[in-house]
Amino acid sequence: MPELPETETIARDLHDMVVGAVISGVTVPRPDVLREADTAGFAKALVGQPIRRVWRRAKLIVLDVDARPELAALDPAWRIVVQPRFTGGLVVDDGGLDAAERAYVCVTFALEDGRALHYRDVRRLGTVALMHRTRFADYSGALGLEPLDPAADDDAFSGCLRASRQAIKIALMDQKRLAGVGNIYANEALWRAGIDPSREACTLNEQELSRLRGELHGVLTASIAARGTSFRDYRDARGERGSFVEQLAAYGRAGEPCLRCGRRLVGTHAVDGRSTVFCPGCQY
Q: Could you give the residue numbers annotated as active site?
């Protein structure tokens, strides 16, 4: 957490809010979140550079930043690669950010228009990396298929999963197979598709895999429309909560009646050590 819908929401917000803004300064109050650069190198590479694009890859938020013109032939554009993990997030501050929120700021990008872009992280488990395009291409290339990519059709989806002997829930969350799916949406997609999360992926037939792909696409799309799921820490780039929690049918509902068949939902940590919620009556 944040997963694909939450990072997609933040990336879309930031693209609308900061593209074209020039970074005028960089401060790093918590340098332990930095990767692939030290504080001085991080600031030197970015100060004076405009933000050209903000987008998502897997559970990453990526900011494309121009290279210095005099080095453009040798030095490709930088990419700031943010992996929020459990409690991290990016927020634009026009001067009104609450003081309690500022306490968790790890990196601040001052913008020439007077605003600031903060990476804040309560537990500091997330990271902020600086990568050249070529380095990012290698990094991204190790990640799996994007489930919302038009290329992620039934054949591609099946190819990612059908050979795995892992539990289907674990296979769905394997970022080298499928990028961006975490615990919340694996639970939800499997409930929607009527598939037991502990089944070995290789036991699913093509019809079941097709149904699962469709339900995963549907739940991710619906969550993006609701601006993600907020339980405790997740906020979008404006500091607002997502509302998809109101549509959850499985995750967080252990012990409650199944919305489809009425049987009591079971919660377990036996599948992958994380909270798995499923219906023993209609998931098989």
A: 2-3, 59, 274
Q: Nearest 5 degrees, angle CA 193-CA 198-CA 203? A: 75
**Torsion 258-261-262-267 (CA) sign:** negative
pLDDT, tens only, 209-268: 999 999 999 999 999 999 999 877 788 888 888 999 999 999 999 999 999 999 999 999
How far apart (Å, rounded) are the C-alpha atoms in residues 142 and 61?
A: 16
| Domains, the chain, with CATH or none | 4-141 (3.20.190.10), 154-278 (1.10.8.50)
Helices (H), the chain: 4-18, 39-46, 99-102, 133-141, 154-161, 168-173, 183-193, 206-225
| Residue 82 to residue 11: CA distance in whole angstroms | 10
Largest CA distance in the chain: 66
Structural tokens at position 243: 């509302």
**pTM here?**
0.91
- DSSP assignment, residue 159? H
Q: Left if phi > 0, otherwise alpha if psi is -120 to 50, otherwise beta: which for 273?
A: left
117, β-bridge pairs: 92, 109
